[in-house]
# Entry
Amino acid sequence: MKVLFIGMGYVGTTTGLVLAEHGHTVTGFDIDQKKIDSLNQGNVYFYEPGLQKILSSHLNKNVFFTTNLKKAVEQNDLIFITVGTPSLANGSADLSYVKDAAKMIGKYINSEKTVVLKSTVPIGTTEKVQKWIEEAAQNNSPVKTVMNPEFLREGSALEDALHPDRIVIGTHDRKAANQLRMLYQNWSCPVIETTPKAAEMIKYASNSFLAAKISFINEMAKLCDKLQVNIQDVAHGMGLDPRIGPHFLKAGLGYGGSCFPKDVKELIYTADSWESPLEILNKVEEINRNQGGYFIEKIKKKLGSLKGKKAALFGLAFKPHTDDTRESVSYLIMERLLKEHAEIKVHDPVVELSSDWTNQGVKQFKDPYKAAKSADVILICTDWPEYEELDWAKVRQLVGSPNIFDGRNAMNSSNIKKLGFYYEGIGYF
Ligand code: UDX
# Structure
């Protein structure tokens, strides 16, 4: 099938390339010329394992990129909207990019089209998109809309898009639903057909539930800190109950990224505006927001004042295997360390620190051992596997004082302690 994607971010690029891998012909549009130039040169402009290879093998065969939307809309009858929906100051999702995309489709529509929303959008948006397209249309070409939420995770986007747990098709139109079933016919997972609003809600409820799992285990971990109970054992014991499941029970510095923080806030906003507040999500959000501060307090409790102390911070990305730093707790921790007048040296395998930080005296090292040299404390903020694999005996020789605070419970604590380090995770020792 021929498919157009409007918005070449993580979701649009990954989904488009995966559809191409399944034999469909994909055109990617973005208003950002730089992104299109980069993709046209065969370069995925963000770090996501595996995508580069797929792009190279399909580019200009059945994958094309353009900034000419008129031609692209005219030539494709199946159009995906995959633009961003960032948070506004009041927590609600900014729908301006979705609205712009809908209006542009309306402007250029020349025949019957199926428009599929993949961006995470507040409940009721799919119906609005239909209206926005029709309002902008210069002719009476029929438009069908579908909500088809995306559940892929950054860092494992390709794997998730190739092997999803489920496909959700939210539409009132039988023909459109069948078109999507055809598009996804090679996938073997369950397909759910429902209304657009239910499809929108499935996405928000799923992300909020996973965020709640994380905040639940983090709250438990803080109690475990007091009681000297190992949260890893607790999570393992809980997770073996199939009703609970083992996933998203990893205690640490909380959730970041481009989805959970904004989606939880948006659902809270929607619930408030319908006067049906989601008290539980307010707590989930609050617990998550305070996790970085809790970590700093733990460090201060052990080291006292951080003034003049050398802190080596490992990991800037919000999670491993990505260069995405949106809502990454590492930055909040750096802010707190600067306020405490600590000296900060950072390392991340892929993220480069911006001049906003280096101008404030934060130093970045490409070599983690150099970042650790003379440090009074090492803070692990992202669970990149590289950190677990470091030669910690060598690190022990390099540091000024052997203190490790592991914000992701990523290390084997007993091995680390045997080397003479003082070690504290979150609910883990
Ligand atoms: C998430 C959803 O998982 C995905 O389905 C949706 O499409 C987009 O949002 P993503 O943001 O890429 O994906 O990352 P995810 O792996 O879900 O992790 C989110 C955050 O939670 C990360 O900061 C991670 O470190 C943290 N996390 C995750 C925990 O702190 N503990 C866990 O047990 C799991």
In short: The two ends are 54 Å apart (CA to CA).
